[in-house]
Batch of 3 targets.
Target 1
Amino acid sequence: MSFTLFADTRLALARDSLAGLSVGDALGAQFFVPGRRPAELAVGSLPPSPWPWTDDTEMACSVVAALAEGGRIDRDALALAFAERCEPYRGYGPGAVRILRLIRTGTPWPVAAASAFDGQGSCGNGAAMRVGPLGAFFADSTGRAAAQARASAEVTHAHPEGIAGAVAVAVAAALATRARLDGYRPAPDRLLAGVAAAVDPATEVHRGVRRAAGLLGRSLPEAVDALGNGSRVTAQDTVAFTCWVAATHLDDYPAAIRTCVQAGGDVDTTAAIVGAVVAAHAGVGTPGGVPTEWLDAREPLPDWVG
Ligand SMILES: [Mg+2]
């Protein structure tokens, strides 16, 4: 089925996803504060606010601002926006800080991105962590979501796994959003099959998403054992796990985020990715959506995101 999404609808859908991303990021980051225990969240106790957001949110805001401005990704402009808005204290990895510094000082992004990791390019989870709202924006075309996700990834992640991670998350968000518009909850295995179909079959991310489908209904420790939890901060170690969580808890944002916190690892990023996909489907302030109380506890988003 094809349909038309008007510009303001696209943006509203992307903003719901961004709300889910940023709340997941900010709440997830709270569990790196000494003394915070996942068990407290499991019984409904929230950390004291405000919850500052991290690099995941800062970069996702640049993606959403770019889509609001031009309706598509202009790679040169996006690379510069990432570089100019980067506040290193927000938890950027050293590799990301280096690439963004090169871009800020005039190195073309293809050169800067290719220079990472001795010329292999980054396969980090950074392109996946910021892309969910883009998938929501292109909910009417998974092909367009995948192509635009690739464009948004390439400016910092030249490695095929880094790009595949972004494509997987964007397509997951696009499919989740489309199901919201059509008024149904996709079966977890169908959602993961749709994601796998869009991702380069030569990648570990693709194999991971297929593995995730085989683990639906299994326990969290089993899923973490087989898929990772982002502790290696690579796309391969992060994206399939987040797809498993999102597919499992697509209509229950709090449960999805609690699952990421319980899994440990790169919690701000896994919760950002999962939060973006689940909020794209479940919404904000709705039953199963991002709780208003959580949204109010998150540090306000930067003014420039509008
Ligand atoms: Mg972060």
Target 2
Amino acid sequence: MKPRPENRPPSDEKARKAVKPVVCYPVDTLPRPDMALYSAARKRMNRIEEVIVPPREAKTFRVKAGNFFRILSMEGPQVGDLNLWCGTDLFEHFYSGKTRALHGTHLGTGDRMWSSFPHLRPMATITHDTLDWYGFDGFGGGVHDVIGTRCDPYTGRLLSGQDYDHCCHSNLIRALAQETGLSFDRAEPHVHDVLNVFMCTGFTRDTHQYFMKASPVRPGDFLEFFAEIDLLGALSACPGGDCGSEHSSDTAPCFPLKIEIFETDPETLEGWSSPRPSAYSGRHGK
Ligand SMILES: [Zn+2]
């Protein structure tokens, strides 16, 4: 609970509060994804690989630019924490904060996962979401958020005094270390804020606290992405399961997630090219 205000409101309180908000980033000038092209390409794609992510574990996967990948629910409601890196450079990774500033708190079809500075380019575009019917519920909750960061053992320790080793943060470290051969110490700084796939979250109306509720995802649901650049991904099957009660424990029912990778027919991608890094000069006032 926040303390009660110590200061009396000014006489023009109403007028100050009545000022209309403006959207921070009007996205009218944002290059729009060509959804018709993706739609044609996904009709002729072929599944080439699948990866199963066991409960309370993470797995990595690679997707070539121009191919698609899906994250699928199987067996039961399960939330996944997704990290993405450029396939050839771990220092270019998904930038959750800027993606949130551009697209809002929750992602859906047509939204993009943007990469970190100095690159700031689309890494992946969401091309299909079987949960797109959900929108926002009566609590203000939606799915696939870019608000939360990932469950981690440090916050767990801070709040409960207990150590727990299968948080998404640790799962992602183990998976990245295994993929790259890096030690845990060297892999950890590359793990970043996630896209919370299938997670249902929002802010409470009264205190504006981050909340979660049981995910509406069911087996067969999927979120599909087009890889705009060569990608290395890591997906953790969150120890919170459907995140309806808690995470950072072994008590919630947890289910595997599946990643499917699809190859496209190059003919269907005519007119598309992998986005270049930001064209900003890099002078920073020098
Ligand atoms: Zn988690």
Target 3
Amino acid sequence: MHLSRTRTLAILVILIEIVAIASIPCCVSAATKRTVLPRVIAVPILTYHYIRPLDGLDASGRSLSVSPVHFEMQMEQLVLQGYHAITPAQLDAALTNGDPLPSKPIMITFDDGYYDQFQNALPVLVRLHLPATMFIVSGFLNRYGYMYESTVRAADATGLITIGAHTQHHMNLTTISTLRAHNEILGSKADLERILNHPITAFAYPFGSYSTPLLREVAADGFHLAFTTVNGDRQSSQIRYQLERSHVRDAPTISWLSR
Ligand SMILES: [Zn+2]
């Protein structure tokens, strides 16, 4: 039987299509639909500023301060209630890889790099062996009321304190140019890495102000986590550059912490 040339070509085309379809892996559609579920972990992250006596302070100063005596009582409360203070590296590993955390994880953070944090909080943290994080404004180092470079080195050398970046001059990053924000963020990272001679991978936004482009900037600059002032404790791998925190006020105990 002789097939016409046209019919032969048509059969060839059909055969090629069958082979092509058969060679497509069966699970392509399933793979493209697969989504990575976010890891969500409840970790309260406490935010402190000044650890100093409140006498003579105005309302604004008082709201940002916890007295040394009350700070010590709050830290003892954490220990007594069975909380385990964790580092940014532990939170990062938990969010990224699902690494286990100790029971009742909590983070203790300090913003701005005030000298009184070193003077009044660090001895308590060392005595109770509580890891904590200090976000430093690198351009304010060595100024009156702020830590010195040597102080930052000493805090880092305890092995309990993670030093994080908080820009060079504590500007509201959402109100300055993209280039200036880039320089503020990356500049503080570079300053602290020069002082400590190791990578700085945690960042806190001054005034808690951030925007979508800033989230990208912080990620591109090599930070693993970034901390806001959004109130909450639900940390997620999908918002690792928008971690939630809780501002702590002066009181003998942190009343809202669950027992
Ligand atoms: Zn700040």
